[in-house]
Amino acid sequence: MAAIEDTASLLHEIELDAWKHNVASHFKPHKIQILPISIDMSSRPSGPNLLTIPAEIRLRIYSFALISASPVIVWSAKCRRNHYRPQRRLQSSREKMAASRENLALGLLRCCTVVGVESAQIFYSRNTFRFEGEHEYYPVITWLDKLDRNRDYLAKLEITVRRPSIAWQLPDGSRHKMSQSKTRGLASHHPYLASPLGPYEEGEVDIVDPAVETIISLLAKHEHSDRQRKMTLCLDTGYYNIPGIELFEFEDTALFSLDLPNLVDIWQRQYFSDPEAFRIIWKTEGELDIFREKRHLIEGVGWNIVHAQEGEFIYNPYGAFGPPHKEEVIPSMQLWMIRNEIVSPIIAAGPSPYTHWHHSPFED
């Protein structure tokens, strides 16, 4: 009797802790599918176990064991170059990925059918999954494809987005990849983007990776199943990167056009019949004063700021390994934005304003 009382007390503590954890969660509870259980008790020891306790308590246990307060990092990598390997080479950070899930009881996902299905619903619907660093989108596609039916439970996915690769546009409208282009596929003009009213300008233009459309189509693959869900895709552009906005004069390293956000908006409406079921948010971070000064420009190109959060970061003009006495604390701001609905034809962006810094790859 004492053992049963101790077990009941432990379950009560787990239930209370899981409830507190869920209150801090940013996700609204999803409707969890409870599978019927048929157990032959004659072959099992007496007393409560995971399959004999009420389903509500099992779900509390799953929440306590499988919900992370921080994003679960699925992919983290940096681009490495050296003298002997001048080409780009991705180096993954396995330690960072493992650390993000070291306190999660992922073994529950590989248990029997009942526990595996129920715990997977909690794990994928109550966590944020993040792809960060260099990835070129293909690790995202591989992961989503392997999730199969568990893809239906995803509630929040974060993907870092960098400036697209570039191509050189000729006066006749044809485009040719630059030597440093990383994007697989064609560099041709995207059919969803209208041609300019006048002649084409020559210069550097963005290549939108077709893998982005593949990701959105995979997320929509089971939209018409009997599982009702709402999902948020957060595209993180990093520091000082807002498509269509020049935050600094004479800085072309972080500048990219609105072609990618505009196409993402088109694909969202194309693949999802219910716009409320799939929300796309763009995120960026930078210096507080700069964002305040440029807010009218941000909104002027069709961005709607839905949330802003102030903070601070440490800046050292000598880099990450600079002397500590040179560090200064700078007020920062994070912005979460969505695209305003575009009703007129979407025209492809023109060349970068810094095209004159470079030479055409077709010149002698």
Can you characterise this structure?
This protein is α/β, with parallel strands linked by helices and 364 residues long. It contains 9 helices and 11 strands. Strands 2-1-3-4-8-9-11-10 form an 8-stranded mixed sheet. It has a 3-stranded antiparallel sheet with strand order 6-5-7, with no helix packed on it. A hairpin with a 5-residue loop joins strand 5 and strand 6 (175-177). Helix 1 (2-23) packs across helix 2. The N and C termini lie far apart (90 Å). Mean pLDDT is 78; it is low at 1-29 and 81-89.
Question: What topology emerges from the helices and strands here?
Answer:
Layout: H1 2-23, H2 55-66, E1 72-80, E2 89-92, H3 94-99, H4 113-126, E3 128-133, H5 138-147, E4 156-160, E5 165-169, E6 175-177, E7 203-207, H6 211-219, E8 231-239, H7 259-271, E9 278-287, H8 288-293, H9 295-300, E10 303-315, E11 328-339
Parallel strand pairs: 1-3, 3-4, 4-8, 8-9
Antiparallel strand pairs: 1-2, 5-6, 5-7, 9-11, 10-11
Helix pairs in contact: 1-2, 2-4, 5-6, 6-7
